[in-house]
Amino acid sequence: MQRTLVIMVKEPRPGRVKTRLGRDMGMVGAAWWFRHQTRTLIRRLRDPRWQILLAVSPDREGMRSRIWPADLPRAAQGRGDLGDRMGRMLRDMPKGPVCLIGADIPGITRGHIADAFRVLGRAQVVFGPAPDGGYWLVGAQRYGALPAGLFNDVRWSTEHALADTLASAPGCRVAMLDQLRDVDTVADLKP
């Protein structure tokens, strides 16, 4: 049984990543922060218990980028909103548990990822909630089909994202992990 950790990354170009953070600290500073945060996160989460795959954006540029480790497999995120892209990543992975995270969660550890995979032994779907009403992780067992409407009608980047996503998966056995903060603004960088 292969465990797959998908890390959603964007090419760290000023004005194209972390734009809300960029409004607070400048677009160059936000891109610099994201580039170093992504490198640190990937290094910290490498573990023989799971395969890491980078879901890259923009598609063509991300597939050739030299910013991320060359030994990690990559897949283009493709078109659509965040739900379309996350749903595609979850559906296209090999059978077995799959967890998907963003690259902007400084507090994440291997222990958090191991907990998510452990919980998927009894739950169909797992979420790592964020204090802003969103989530830092979504995972699925992937032994069968994902819920057909998963990620439909989700109000992304709002305090309703987690509640809307839960509503899109009725009847699923859902588990919750520890709450972690993602970084959207300078205030999120403070412990």
What's the structural blueprint in terms of helices and strands?
Elements: E1 4-10, H1 19-25, H2 27-45, E2 51-57, H3 59-64, E3 74-76, H4 82-92, E4 98-102, H5 110-119, E5 125-129, E6 135-140, H6 161-167, E7 174-176
Parallel strand pairs: 1-2, 1-4, 2-3, 5-7
Antiparallel strand pairs: 4-6, 5-6
Can you count the beta strands?
A: 7
Sheet/helix structural class? alpha/beta
Total DSSP helices: 6
Query: What strand order characterises the main sheet?
Result: 3-2-1-4-6-5-7
CATH-derived architecture: Alpha-Beta Complex
- What is Rg? 16 Å
State the CATH superfamily name: Spore Coat Polysaccharide Biosynthesis Protein SpsA, Chain A
For the termini, the CA-CA separation is 37 Å
CATH class: Alpha Beta
The tally of domains stands at 1
Overall shape: globular
Secondary-structure element pattern, one letter each = EHHEHEHEHEEHE
Could you tell me the CATH topology label: Spore Coat Polysaccharide Biosynthesis Protein SpsA, Chain A
Largest sheet: 7 strands, mixed
Portion of residues within helices = 25-40%
Strand content: 15-25%
Low-confidence stretches: none
Overall pLDDT metric: 94
Can you give a write-up of this model?
The structure is a single chain. By secondary structure, the chain is α/β, with parallel strands linked by helices. It has a single domain (4-189), classed as Spore Coat Polysaccharide Biosynthesis Protein SpsA, Chain A (Alpha-Beta Complex), CATH 3.90.550.10. Helices cover 31% and strands 19% of the residues. The chain is built from six helices and seven strands; from the N terminus they run βααβαβαβαββαβ. The model has no long low-confidence stretch (mean pLDDT 94).
